[in-house]
Specification:
flat, cell projection, 32% strand, 430 residues, 22 strands, signal, cilium, alpha+beta, 4-stranded antiparallel β-sheet, 5 domains, flagellum, Flag_FlgI
């Protein structure tokens, strides 16, 4: 066909808005031409610089191109099939040193009980004397109150980090004597002490007890939950703050929850990528952070650092065994070396039979009783399973389930595999 008529036909079948994108001959300027076409007829488009490179992949035979494709697939395939990598926030991996809660304890008296309090105990008498003394009352020497509507209790609370005077915290009240129930009682004002012996709070209020205990005259009783422990929501007021020193210390330290050098190094790199020269690793747990002085600037930087994401190191292979309950926990990193596992039950049977020997008729013999015992030993359900090297957690569990292993037997098998060197994991027995 004449090129002129061919160009006119192309013009008739294309919308006007597409005509401006066509060059001579009705072709797009960025079209890719195949190599079998005459080079003189190739359109000079966007693909021309790529096609002009002297690449063996583009110019070689089809067999070579296929081999290169297979090689690339072999290299990229494992990366695509690998499990997803989960990044975690820095605040989920550790915490700043000194920014933590503190435990408080105290001793006091719960009053208002309906005859379910302590008997005449010495420590209750001492508690009552102390409480009465704070109220300006004096108990005569040698006089015991002997109250059944009061109970000596131990008070515990947790003081959060940065708690300020005037704030309120929850307290737990537990009976330490022979009190049957704290239901309906009220805690008299009692101080809460820290580990340094200083008073950090004052507790007082009505108890919320979730347990219930009732008894009858014949000695029968019924107890639901624990009636000798109660809580007082916001029952203690903070009287002293704990100094953290985060706004004045030259170097702040950040500690990992679980020691790992690789994770510590990755956290350091993540921090230094945003704040160069800020973090350095001291050991497998601690990072030293050199932050600018000033509470406001440090607070902003600490908040930003805690929100950084880091890919933690793979969890080390570990098996935790509770020999008392038969509980076994195996993480996903556990592997098995080539091993053969044999499991069976040795069943001992002892049958006792009493044989009675009767004498013949008209004989002067006597009836004789002779016991007969039969002892047998049989091995039932014996199995042998072979595990190839590198078996994962799923293979280990499937193999042990195939053998019908119970919790107690599983503990023994895992210990034997560890001693044989086939279990590639740290084993912790509780």
């Amino acid at each position: 066909m004449d090129p002129v008529f061919r160009d006119r036909a192309a013009r008739r079948h294309r919308p006007p808005d597409q005509f401006r994108d066509l060059g001579q001959g009705g072709r797009r300027a960025d079209g890719i031409c195949r190599e079998r076409l005459d080079p003189a007829r190739r359109a000079r488009g966007l693909a021309e610089p790529v096609l002009q490179h002297d690449l063996a992949v583009l110019r070689g035979p089809a067999v070579i191109r296929r081999l290169i494709t297979l090689a690339l697939a072999a290299l990229i395939g494992p990366a695509l099939l690998a499990g997803p990598v989960h990044a975690e926030r820095v605040r989920d991996l550790g915490a700043f040193q000194g920014v933590r809660s503190n435990q408080l304890t105290g001793y006091g008296v719960v009053v208002g009980l309906d005859g379910t309090g302590d008997d005449n105990l010495e420590y209750l008498t001492q508690a009552m004397r102390g409480t009465a003394g704070r109220l300006g009352l004096q108990l005569p020497p040698g006089v015991s109150p002997g109250l059944k509507n009061a109970a000596a209790v131990l008070i515990t609370a947790e003081l959060p980090a940065f708690a300020k005077p005037g704030q309120h915290i929850d307290v737990t009240v537990s009976a330490i004597g022979k009190a049957k129930s704290l239901r309906g009682g009220a805690l008299v004002l009692a101080p809460l002490y820290g580990a340094d012996g200083q008073i950090y709070g004052m507790a007082q209020g009505n108890l919320a007890v979730g347990g219930l205990g009732v008894s009858g005259r014949d000695g029968s009783k019924l107890t639901v939950n624990v009636p000798t422990v109660g809580r007082i929501p916001e029952g203690a007021s903070v009287e002293r703050a704990v100094a953290t020193g985060f706004d004045s210390a030259e170097v702040l330290r950040w500690n990992l929850y679980q020691a790992d050098f690789l994770t510590a190094a990755r956290v350091r790199d993540a921090v230094n990528s945003h704040y160069p020269g800020t973090a350095s690793v001291e050991d497998g747990v601690t990072l030293a952070l050199r932050l600018p002085s000033g509470a406001d600037v440090r607070s902003s930087m600490m908040a930003a650092i805690e929100m950084l994401t880091v890919v933690p190191a793979e969890t080390p292979a570990k098996v935790i065994v509770n020999s008392r309950t038969g509980t076994v926990v195996i993480n996903s990193a556990v592997r098995l070396a080539p091993a053969a596992i044999s499991h069976g039950k040795l069943v001992l049977k002892v049958d006792e039979k009493i044989n009675v020997s009767q004498p013949g008729a008209f004989s002067k013999g006597q009836t004789v009783v002779t016991p007969e015992s039969k002892v047998s030993a049989d091995e039932e359900g014996s199995h042998i399973a072979y595990e190839k090297g590198g078996a994962s957690l799923a293979k280990v569990v499937d193999a042990l389930n195939l053998l019908g292993v119970g919790p107690s037997d599983l503990v023994e098998i895992l210990q034997a595999l560890k001693q044989a060197g086939a279990l590639k994991a740290e084993m912790e027995v509780l």
